[in-house]
Design goal:
The chain has about 230 residues and is mainly alpha-helical. The protein has one domain. It contains 7 helices and no strands. Helix 1 (about 25-50) crosses helix 4 (about 105-130) and helix 4 packs antiparallel against helix 7. It is globular, with a radius of gyration of 20 Å. The chain starts with about 25 loop residues before the first helix and ends with a helix.
Length: about 230
């Protein structure tokens, strides 16, 4: 599997959390923690994005190549009866063991984080060049980014359910939207060539990093489908 080891993030992970009874405050805290995790990823990304194999390096820093990152791995090889009180899922009033959702999925963190970066770059670029960029271009480029992200999130959800073919289909849609973003990027024109080149370079690099992650996921999904077919 790829460096993100998404194989272990499956639909079965909810079973271990059925005892959780979180309130609105608990989930708000959970989402704030997820935003901090995305922020951590982006911090590492900005430091390492010019290095070769930076995505794999960041995955190691974030801990995504560790087996214990996968929810449900903790008790697989231990005596559950002997550790039930320590290992069972608890509510926020009892302890700090969080449930698993796709918010924790490495591919979600990478995808959402990189799109946050893209939208922020686009916002700053358009604010600085309002007179040179038409509202139509602003809308089209923003829509292409949105289409890429929403399909990627739907793909991660399908992956979490174990539906590899649906994952691939959504990621194909994401790649199509990404290609549209790249095409629109080349149509941009402003008077300051240096600023334009900087924006195009940064945006292109980020889009290609997203492309690499999605292609890895698609390749792993196809491998899983082949394994399933061979075992029948």
């Amino acid at each position: 599997m790829s460096g993100f080891d998404f194989e272990n993030f499956s639909d079965g992970d909810w079973d271990q959390n059925e005892e959780l009874a979180w309130n609105e405050y608990d989930w708000q805290r959970y989402l704030r923690q997820n935003e901090r995790e995305i922020s951590d990823f982006l911090t590492h990304y900005h430091k390492l994005k010019h290095e070769p194999d930076h995505l794999d390096a960041i995955a190691r820093i974030m801990g995504w190549d560790r087996e214990e990152w996968s929810p449900g791995e903790m008790v697989e090889d231990t005596d559950f009866d002997a550790q039930e009180e320590n290992e069972r899922p608890r509510s926020s009033s009892e302890g700090d063991m969080d449930p698993y959702t796709i918010h924790k999925h490495p591919v979600f963190i990478v995808t959402h984080g990189l799109y946050q970066h893209l939208f922020k770059c686009w916002e700053m670029f358009t604010l600085q060049n309002q007179r040179s960029i038409s509202p139509v271009m602003v809308g089209r480029f923003g829509a292409s980014l949105h289409a890429g992200e929403i399909n990627a999130v739907m793909a991660i959800n399908a992956l979490d359910m174990g539906d590899y073919n649906l994952t691939i289909c959504h990621l194909k849609n994401s790649l199509s939207a990404l290609n549209h973003s790249l095409a629109l990027l080349q149509k941009l024109s402003i008077k300051n060539d240096r600023i334009l080149n900087l924006f195009q370079s940064e945006t292109t690099r980020t889009l290609f990093d997203l492309r690499e992650v999605w292609l890895r996921v698609m390749n792993d999904c196809r491998e899983e489908e082949r394994r399933g077919s061979d075992s029948e």
